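To close the section, here is one more complete example, presented without commentary so you can practise reading it yourself. The ligand is 5-O-phosphono-beta-D-ribofuranosylamine.
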Amino acid sequence: MSVYRKKVAVLISGRGSNMISLINATRTADFPAEIVVVGSNRPDAAGLSYARNEGIACFALDHKQYGKDREAFERDLDAKLEENGVELVVLAGFMRLLTPWFVNRWHNRLINIHPALLPAFPGLDTHERAIETGVKVHGATVHFVTAEMDVGPIIAQGIVQVEDTDDANRLGTRVLEIEHQIYPQALRLIASGNYRIHGMRVLATDK
Ligand code: GRF
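Output:
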């Protein structure tokens, strides 16, 4: 029996290596999601050219054209998602803060990957801060997006050991490899619908 594939948008701002891992995963036969569109707030994002070459519909909404009017940008973004029949929005290095209006509109249908083990190190420069703080384990988190940045029910986490010889770059490279593993796994779970949210916990349910 063929599986229902939830229609997913991936939003990016840059190179899109997580997007590539999601494209590859969604091409496997039984994956419960398909990427129907890739969007970016930066027309020159390298990931957009990649997605276009893969035959995926793409759009760019240059946030600079909107000045300070975040909601106007988000209304146009929302219209693009609706036009494409999107059911689930996946942020993959999308470097725009989203307003409560957008987050509430996509409540429980909007997920993000963050390069740290939340709730540790929300925000930027996570690898530098992990090294400075002296933690021995670090990693990445996939979570539902809520109005507060980098806070929301946690779907998946992956860990790496921090080595004595690490700098932010070396550590970040290993975290990125982990991101490429956990994001497809998390998307599989959420797209399948076999989970429930209990407070901040995302719990797998029986199929
Ligand atoms: C990743 O480290 C992700 O965790 C963060 O932004 C980076 C995006 O990288 N949110 P890429 O564009 O997916 O390569």
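Once you have examined the tokens, check your reading against these statements. The first strand starts at residue 6 and ends at 12. Residues 8 and 191 are 9 Å apart (CA to CA).
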